[in-house]
Hints:
Shape: rod-shaped
Number of strands: 4
Number of domains: 1
Amino acid sequence: MTVQITIGATLPEVGELKSTLAAVRDRGWLSGDLSGSNPGVESLGSPSSPLSALSDSGFGFITASVSFLDEPLQQLAGDPSSVSAGAQGFQDAGRGVSSIADSYQQSVGPETSGWSGDTAASYLATGAELVDSIAGLGDASTALAEAVTGAGEAAAKALQEVTALVSEATGKIIMILNQAVAAAQATFGASVAAAIPQAVQVAAEYGGRIVAVMQQLLSSNQGLLQHVGATAKAVATLTDSMSKITELCQRSAGTSGSTTGSTSTLASTTTPTARTASHGTTPTYGSTPEATGDPASAEDSPAATTLAWNTSST
């Protein structure tokens, strides 16, 4: 009878990673206005400063007094290609690892269909754990790809919001200064002197609104980092599981290489990566002679790649 391995049946971390992946992908961790429509990572390139309009309007003398509005724009600017390349790297790795898990899942059951007893049960249990570990790593890589993309999109949205605020502030400052210049002759220049603090006050008000956007970005990143932390924790558990399976394989292979004789007894640590068998003998798992079928027929099976045998002379 062929037993089908179900991904996620042995390690709860696999289900947790799928939930984490969905949460990162849904962007529920974004805060405030950053959760709205997004311009995309491509907009992260070096932006032009709206403050340049001050010089274009003949008011460059006040640029230094309101230049603090420009600082967040420079902080948010980035290299879109680096973000995209990083995300694509994780995405490709996740797709490749998931493909390996799917392939092993499909092969391990059918190619050991002639096995039964404790041997088959132990093999399939370990095989299911290995499938889960591999599949989980694939989901983890995909989740990190989504996290990289999401972080880039959050920064792009913040950049869009800040740019709009700086543009709005610049427009108001230009309006104030235009009115001041128009009244300068009648006031002997006093109107221009009075307009400068007004312009700075406008810049300060918009600076406060910009700070609010940056705080939303910080809050969003903190939410995203919680998902990344959960992913890292799951990966640690999965890699630990795979390390234990590897140790079983190594011990099994060592046992196989150090035994001789014609009577074969299946080693007490059966793993999904063993490949030695003596055709024509009946294996037993430990001291329980329940295993039936012909394991040697699985010699070329990718699902049964290191079955170790203890042999003793009779």
